[in-house]
Amino acid sequence: MAFMLAAEAAGWQTVPMTGYRRDGLRRVLNLSERYLDVMLIALGKGAEHGHRTLRQDAAAVSAWDGLPE
Known about the structure:
Elements: H1 2-9, E1 13-17, H2 22-29, E2 40-44, H3 58-61
Antiparallel strand pairs: 1-2
Domain Nitroreductase: 2-45
Protein name: Nitroreductase domain-containing protein
GO molecular function: oxidoreductase activity
């Protein structure tokens, strides 16, 4: 997260990525078993301005005793 915030402060855009082919990544980057890859972060300059993901308030989708209202 700190990397992504620092990149944004420097004028870059980032996006976290999961669901990639780990075996292919490890082979291409020649990663030893010592390292654990958990995600990729793409870094660059966007061709267009994007939009922030809209999130619902936690109270709208969670409840302690029953269903959310």
